[in-house]
Amino acid sequence: MEAPLRETRSNVSLAPLTTLRAGGAAERFWVARTVDQLAAISGHLHAEGTVPTILGHGSNVLPSDDGVPGDTVHVLSRRIEIEPSGVVTADCGCAFQDLFLATAQAGFLGFEYAVGIPGTLGGALVSNAGAYRSNVSEFLTELEVVHSGERRWVEPTFMSFSYRDSRLRRPRPEACTLLRARFRLPRGIPKAIYDEAREYQRQRISKQPPPASAGSFFKNVTGADFAASLENLPDRLRNAGVVPAGFLIQEAGLSGFRHKGAMIARRHANFIVNVGGATAFAIRELAELAKRRVLDQFGVLLEEEVLYLGDWSRFGTAEA
Ligand SMILES: Cc1cc2nc3c(=O)[nH]c(=O)nc-3n(C[C@H](O)[C@H](O)[C@H](O)COP(=O)(O)OP(=O)(O)OC[C@H]3O[C@@H](n4cnc5c(N)ncnc54)[C@H](O)[C@@H]3O)c2cc1C
Questions:
Q1: CB-neighbour burial class of residue 54 (10 A; exposed 0-12, middle 13-18, buried 19+)
Q2: Does domain 210-309 have CATH number 1.10.3720.10?
Q3: pTM
Q4: Atom 37 in ligand 1: which residue has the minimum CA distance?
């Protein structure tokens, strides 16, 4: 067993470790460079009765300006093993895009949509990340976790996956760290795999704004009646009964709206971008404004895809 305690630091600023480039510091900060280190740190903290905050590439989180109390574990384990049968075992700290590259190079399909998603495999599993009608739970066969101090392999049903959701997104966090995931991928034709990924990448570049963001801030809304009631919604979406959150925010007149260094992107109204020194509170204030406007205009409460980390008790109070 590798010694896990070596890399603990105090008050580590999390803003540089998030794609929104905002937020305060982690009270205690651990770095796990291998799966065994991650398991040992998690086991040690669970045994102390602590539920650590796990951080991947920080591309789906907003840590509070008031910081993240307790222990934060930064996952840097990156191994990917591919068997000729298409069984892939990957560390949850590997970049989701590296998983695409490694598996595509070995001639397997399944992660084409992952190109341009800047997170780790662990973060992708927590939010059942996906795009273009695919998601990470699709070819998943097993997961290795440390759950309440115990290291074991579990079935995908353990995660209770649904659209951009899993049990690890619930408001009361569980003592559960994702260590490794196993997939069984079908063989594909290399040219077709790369062509598909290239096409998705092209679409992303044309839609996504370049500045600091956490991708889509809110989940899309589903509902055939609601979609049918929206005159300006493109037919394709109306027929699918899907209403993009960005469509609602744009219809509410907020595209390009700025608030203290944060902005609703013009190119994609579901992206809140940090255009210059926005605090986490400012970003969340803008998100709350978008939610209020959409609720007033459409009677729909948007749900965040981005996860708020840490101590938000001062948010929305007079002191904030
Ligand atoms: C430009 C841009 C485009 C994006 N496009 C998409 C997209 O098309 N589709 C999509 O679904 N998402 C998209 N995202 C969001 C994000 O990239 C994904 O959700 C990503 O998979 C998150 O991974 P992460 O490592 O950054 O997670 P983090 O942000 O670090 O963490 C997210 C959550 O997962 C938890 N977590 C992370 N690792 C572990 C672990 N090993 N064990 C337990 N919990 C863990 C964290 O505690 C946190 O609650 C986009 C983001 C950006 C910035």
A1: buried
A2: no
A3: 0.95
A4: 123
